[in-house]
């Protein structure tokens, strides 16, 4: 007989953060920089823990340069050649500490990753990304990569439950990527019926990871700066963004002109667009297909970053956290049935 879990699981949209008495006068007093030491690599990190997703259109070298200026992080997508990496290392050495090289578990992925890390030894982070982090095959892959790269910091995912967070950490990963189904161009929930409400996934996975001195990334589902704050409030050490960083000058994808308006193409890593682009290469990358959408062109990503960081700083002042580190300790979520007043449109 199928089991039903009756505990209510929540998404970002189901909650708001409760304001708390605070001594902070202005959001400029809030420090968003965090430092971590990773469980297995023993390396340390310092920066503002917001990450551009390793998607074709978001995890670009241009994005890494723009985000790096703000101490943000970029997981570079896996379709750049070793030559591209060498060029980046030569022209932008100052941004190498804030990027990860990505890999799936497909054929040739391990060799490609090894070649990049050999050619650019300054890269300290590896992002091992599969749609379904629950397979034995993936766990073994994490172990193999750890054995081959004992001192690199390994990001691995995606999963949504505590027991799998623990298994991946014990297999050698340092940072676990959490999220199945919440992404803006993801169709997993529709195609497979599988998923987990992102806020609850983050709360539960953060608890499991922190018990083992591991870290987590909340990956997917952020639609506005308030959602980024909720993810941090729920206990995420890092927050990964795809859709919110799409549509900018630094995003990959062609600029399209239509009826006097400019758009940029944004697509899921297992969408038809991605499959066609990397013919054969990504067919097995994501279990389920993703969407392809046209995002209105938003100019330089710098404005969006300022907007996001300003929002998170402001959240911190509302709940009395002088540092991002204190945000989750100061967080009480209130369940709501409605969070935005949409009388003048949903996006304002
Ligand atoms: P967003 O910030 O756009 O809501 O979510 C970004 C995340 O969506 C990515 O980091 C990745 O985990 C996930 N994602 C990207 N492409 C696809 C896809 O084609 N299918 C699925 N299921 N998820 C995707």
Keywords:
348 residues; alpha/beta; binds guanosine-5'-monophosphate
Description:
With 348 residues, the protein is α/β, with parallel strands linked by helices. It contains 10 helices and 15 strands. The strands form 4 sheets. An 8-stranded parallel β-barrel has the order 4-5-6-7-8-9-10-11, surrounded by 6 helices. Strands 12-13-14 form a 3-stranded antiparallel β-sheet. Strand 10, helix 8 and strand 11 form a beta-alpha-beta unit. The model has no long low-confidence stretch (mean pLDDT 94).
**Relative helix content:** 25-40%
Please give the count of helices. 10
Give the spatial strand order of the biggest sheet: 4-5-6-7-8-9-10-11
Radius of gyration: 19 Å
Morphology call: globular
- Identify every distinct bound molecule in the structure, by name, code or SMILES: guanosine-5'-monophosphate
> Major sheet: size, sense and barrel closure?
8 strands, parallel, barrel
Number of strands: 15
Assign the structural class, choosing from mainly alpha, mainly beta, alpha/beta, alpha+beta, or little secondary structure: alpha/beta
Return residue spans where pLDDT drops below 50 for at least 5 consecutive residues. none
| Estimated share of beta-strand residues | 15-25%
Name the helix and strand elements from N-terminus to C-terminus, one letter apiece: EEEEHEHEHEHEHEHHEHEEEHEHE
Taking the alpha carbons of the first and last residues, their distance comes to: 46 Å
Mean pLDDT: 94
């Amino acid at each position: 007989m199928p089991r039903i879990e009756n505990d209510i699981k929540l998404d970002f949209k189901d909650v708001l953060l409760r304001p708390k008495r605070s001594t902070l006068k202005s959001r400029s007093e809030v420090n968003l920089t965090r430092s971590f030491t990773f469980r297995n690599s023993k390396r340390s990190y310092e920066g503002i823990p917001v990450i551009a997703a390793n998607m074709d259109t978001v995890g670009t070298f241009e994005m890494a340069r723009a985000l790096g200026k703000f101490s943000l992080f970029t997981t570079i997508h896996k379709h750049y050649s070793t030559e591209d990496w060498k060029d980046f290392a030569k022209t932008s050495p100052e941004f190498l500490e804030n990027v990860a090289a990505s890999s799936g578990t497909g054929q040739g992925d391990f060799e490609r990753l090894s070649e990049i890390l050999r050619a650019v030894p300054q890269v300290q982070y590896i992002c091992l990304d599969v749609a379904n982090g629950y397979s034995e095959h993936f766990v073994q892959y994490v172990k193999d990569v750890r054995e081959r790269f004992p001192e690199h910091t390994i990001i691995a995912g995606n999963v949504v439950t505590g027991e799998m967070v623990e298994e991946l950490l014990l297999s050698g990963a340092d940072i676990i990527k959490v999220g199945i189904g919440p992404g803006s161009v993801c169709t997993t929930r529709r195609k497979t019926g599988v998923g987990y409400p992102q806020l609850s996934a983050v709360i539960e996975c953060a608890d499991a990871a922190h018990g083992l001195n591991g870290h987590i990334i909340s990956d997917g589902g952020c639609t506005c700066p308030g959602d980024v704050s909720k993810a941090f409030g729920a206990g995420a050490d890092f927050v990964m963004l795809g859709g919110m960083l799409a549509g900018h000058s630094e995003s990959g994808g062609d600029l399209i002109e239509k009826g006097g308006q400019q758009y940029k193409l944004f697509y899921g890593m297992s969408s038809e667009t991605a499959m066609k682009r990397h013919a054969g290469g990504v067919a097995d990358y994501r279990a389920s297909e993703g969407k392809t959408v046209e995002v209105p062109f938003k100019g330089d990503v710098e404005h969006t970053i300022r907007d996001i960081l300003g929002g998170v700083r402001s959240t911190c002042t509302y709940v009395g956290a002088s540092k991002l580190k204190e945000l989750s300790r100061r967080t009480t979520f209130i369940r709501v049935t409605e969070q935005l007043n949409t009388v003048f449109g949903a996006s304002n």
